Amino acid sequence: MSPMARTAPVPAATDPALIRNFCIIAHIDHGKSTLADRMLQYTGVVKSRDMKAQYLDRMDIERERGITIKSQAVRMPWELDGISYALNMIDTPGHVDFTYEVSRSLAACEGAVLLVDAAQGIEAQTLANLYLAMENNLNIIPVLNKIDLPAAQPEKYAAELANLIGGDPEDVLRVSGKTGVGVEALLDKIVRDLPAPVGDPDGPARAMIFDSVYDTYRGVVTYVRVVDGMLHPRERIQMMSTRATHELLEIGVSSPEPTPTKGLGVGEVGYLITGVKDVRQSKVGDTVTNMAKPASESLAGYADAKPMVFSGLYPLDGTDYPVLRDALEKLMLNDAALVYEPETSAALGFGFRVGFLGLLHLEITRERLEREYNLDLISTAPNVEYEVTLEDKRVVHVTNPSEYPTGKIAEVREPMVSATILAPNEFVGAIMELCQSRRGVMGGMDYLSEDRVEIRYRLPLAEIVFDFFDILKSKTRGYGSLDWKADGDQVADLVKVDIMLQGEQVDAFSAITHREKAYAYGVMMTSKLRELIPRQQFEVPIQAAIGSRIIARESIRAIRKDVLAKCYGGDITRKRKLLEKQKEGKKRMKMVGRVEVPQEAFIAALTTDESKDKAKK
Amino acid sequence: MPSVLPLGDPAPADGLLPPQVLDGVDSRRFGLYVHIPFCAVRCGYCDFNTYTATELGGGASQDAYASTAISEVEFAVQAMDASGLPRRPLSTVFFGGGTPTLLPAEDLARILTAAVGHWGLEDGAEVTTEANPDSVTPESLQLLAEAGFTRISFGMQSAVPHVLKVLDRTHTPSRVPMVVQWARDAGLAVSLDLIYGTPGESMADWQTSLETALSYEPDHISAYALIVEEGTKLAAQIRRGEVPGIDDDDHAAKYELADQLISAAGLDWYEVSNWSRTPEQACRHNLAYWRGDDWWGIGPGAHSHMGGVRWWNVKHPTAYAGRLGSGASPAAGRETLDAATREVERIMLEARLGTGLHVDALDKVGRHAVAGLIADGLVEPAAAFQGRLVLTIKGRLLADAVVRRILPD
After folding, report:
1. Do A583 and B341 touch (CB under 8 A)?
2. Is A443 helix (H, G, I), strand (E, B) or coil?
3. How far apart, in Å, are the Cα atoms of A225 and each of A20, A75, A268?
4. Cβ–Cβ under 8 Å, residues A377 and A312
5. Over 80: is that where the pLDDT of B107 sits?
6. A584 touches chain B (CB under 8 A)
7. Chain A contact present for B230, CB below 8 A
8. What are B317-359's pLDDT values in tens digits?
9. Degrees to nearest 5, angle at CA A382 with A377 and A387
10. CA–CA separation, B225 vs B248, rounded Å?
11. Which helix (H) or strand (E) holds B327?
């Protein structure tokens, strides 16, 4: 057993040979945070008595959902054979929507711990991140976690991992983040097996930003990995993508609390504070250099975050619009991927069209807005960005069905993704059926082990943003996992379906669908609305139309009776209070022409059945 | 009265009324409602404040009830006098229940005589009692007429045995023509109360009830849609699936049939649920509720209104008798309406009347809504052009919706 390091290497003066930079690749609930906690404890950077579960996950939502949204880096000392090393653990976001951020975290490391639940085996996102790590030439240390569980099958999954990365199943480490078994051996192995960082200590400074977090008190905290040269406090630094310069107010390492240092040298990982207030001024993937002695070439791999999924967010109570606007402004400070612009809906009033990296990003953002800013929101059905070319060669980018051009359309292109699905082989048929019904084209299939397969499909993004994952989960009894990445676009036969109440178009319910699915959408939406909208004093026809062609219709019969027969013995008070309550209820109705539509109807109509079930649980 | 009382402000023990009740007192008629909280059997649909036990103690028993009610009459006289209200002769008196005729006719007469002794009675005043066809005799009706009653309202409800059974009504339908004749012989005007939309009642059943009631040539008919109130036996039976639920469309169709047959028999609607043979035979006590007149409600759970002040008595007969026994007001709560609320009430109530509501009384929003109401066929266009908002039959069925449209936002 290795002892806790007696002396820790000093930041800014550490020989790169003593540095090990690594990350942990794991699926959401495979125990990454628990293992990280145990490492903090064993290396002594967090005293046992200060330990709280999942120390590194800072936001409540993260802790509740057990997932890590934002990464952070921690410097830990570890002693092996009498030498003290500095280990930098770079935490990676664990979800499909944050692939780019994951890729930057990986690029900051020389090695990765591939952490897999010994009872569940590898999941699609983990596999995708593993491939990403292998593409980045990272050394992989395969580890099975939760070996203390009765359901653990270490032999089976060790073989699966060995099969994936090459090597012997015997080399797969077995640990338990919960009990601590095997954690010290893992720390030793990190020191032994991972290469030390290499860089030019005398060259112009180059540091890669792998995370950027807004802090209310300190402004933006930028996490970097120094590749060449050295950064010092009070220097002026420059962001190479924007050429923007800032004064370096503070530089330091997290251990795990921020600790200022005299600088950061080759291979070191730490944070920078410049006083800027917006994470957009400190973009993930960008290269930081010294203004006085700038690098001529930035580090490879920088890309702007590109929103893939768009949804309209509207306050239930129209007077909350300014609150929503301020809330989005604040969230944006900490989320470089979030884009939004004001939008007006005839049915929903004033709101914003917001672009997200994916569906989880949407869900998390919405949940934060509701929880942290006490807002009640309606979100419209998620949309992707279509490129519509008109016959006059004009090109329009459409992220909202109501902006779909009405003129002659020459061509519509929709974004595509390549998706990887992992599941037990008994579900292959169900998965293929699902993907084909979503216009998917199969790319291939591989066995990961005797009974687990990896299926690859190319699918339109629009087909997976709404309810695909929920259905996949239910069709695979929870075992299926999904990962996707953008994969160009394709020409598609798409149409816009409008929904009309009493001849009045309801923009919130319009959808862009494949022509073959337009009828199904029309029937689904009209019959749903017939159930959801209360009877009015007149008959209300509900129609679905493509242009002027009606493809589905329903009708809500007029209400015939709305009167209390009598006032009991002169109890006028009761009757008046009932009337006042009804009047109050009417205020919460949204008017579509003359039709009163309850908020609940909008919410229910814009929610899938699956997600409704989820909410009930 | 419904079993649940409204929430309001506390009512003072001395029953004193605020000075606002004096404003315009001369333009308001004064009536008396007397609640008799007893029934032989509690009907399955009923959530009124009524009791079947013959022996409630402490001045609440059937035997002692007339004396207890008279003590509230005396309390009312005192409180109104002390509040500076002039003594006005009674314009209308209405005994309701429960089953008022479960008390001996002498008791009803005694209560009426006591009230008239204090306030007097207008010439041509209307004095009504509700009655169950089972609980009257030629003699008791004669006695009531002699005591000053002018009108009787029989709870006929239906002419169809299986419908009466669901309603738990005990009378035999064949008794109705007999008691109507006895009432006529005693010189009383006759009204028949009907209920429609009972679970299991077919359209043909309802037609039978209407035609049977009309064949007795009443002066007045009330037809109320059955309301299933929470906490009643009927509500529980529907919940358990023992009887079918009620359906608003069925109610609407039955209301239309009622209006058609009753009108054809020569009676006109003057309030959503009430028809009379001549305007004079409309129930003036009922109209007083819709017109915002003053009335004092005697009895447990009874509601009162005096110049924009509404109050209601404690519900249980024993608590009620106890309050009066200690010289305190039996009121459980009251509310004093501000001008805007009184206006809302006026619109809400007058819109239900055959004479309609003056369009001038509406604010801009309300006047603006009238054109839409005409377009939707909810109000009579001719009356509207003359400045009165009178509901069409479609409008009567949607009266609450109409009111919501014309009320200030």
Report:
1. no
2. strand
3. 12, 12, 6
4. no
5. yes
6. no
7. no
8. 999 999 999 999 999 999 999 999 999 999 999 999 999 999 8
9. 135
10. 9
11. none
* Selected residues 329-368 of chain B with any CB under 8 Å from a CB in chain A: 335, 341, 344-345, 348-349
The nearest alpha carbon in chain A to B304 belongs to A570
Instruction: Please judge whether B295 and A570 are an interchain contact, meaning their C-beta atoms are less than 8 angstroms apart.
Output: yes
Which pLDDT score is estimated for A80? 93
Cβ contact B248–A560 (<8 Å): yes
Per-residue pLDDT at A613 exceeds 50: no
Q: What is the predicted pLDDT for the residue at B2?
A: 47
Tell me the pLDDT band of B75, cut-offs 50, 70 and 90.
Answer: very high
Q: Which two tokens stand for residue A338?
A: 């979030």
What is the Cα Rg of chain B in Å?
A: 21
Instruction: Please state the φ and ψ torsions of residue A384, each to the nearest 5 degrees.
Output: -105, 180
Spatial distance between the Cα atoms of A31 and B245, rounded to a whole number of angstroms: 54
Cα–Cα distance between A416 and A487 in angstroms, integer? 5
Joined tokens for residue B75: 């309390």
Structure tokens at A511: 């959808």
pLDDT of residue A58: 52
Torsion angle of C-alpha atoms A120, A123, A129, A134, degrees rounded to 10: 70
Q: Which residues pair with A504 in a beta bridge?
A: A501
Q: Do A579 and B348 touch (CB under 8 A)?
A: yes
Q: What is the pLDDT of residue B9?
A: 82
B272: nearest CA partner in chain A: A565
Residues B66, B299: Cα–Cα separation, whole Å? 10
How many angstroms away from the CA of A498 is the closest CA of chain B?
A: 27
Backbone angles phi, psi at A50, to 5 degrees: -90, -5
Q: Is B263 helix (H, G, I), strand (E, B) or coil?
A: helix
Q: Please provide the average confidence, as pLDDT, over all residues in chain B.
A: 92
Q: What is the ipTM of this complex?
A: 0.86
**Which of B36, B195, B249, B275 is the best residue to mutate to test the A interface, defined by the most A CB atoms within 10 Å of its own CB?**
B249
Confidence tier at A66 by pLDDT (50, 70, 90)? very low
Closest CA to A373 of A319, A335, A320, A334: A320
The answer to whether residue B315 neighbours chain A at the CB level (below 8 Å) is: no
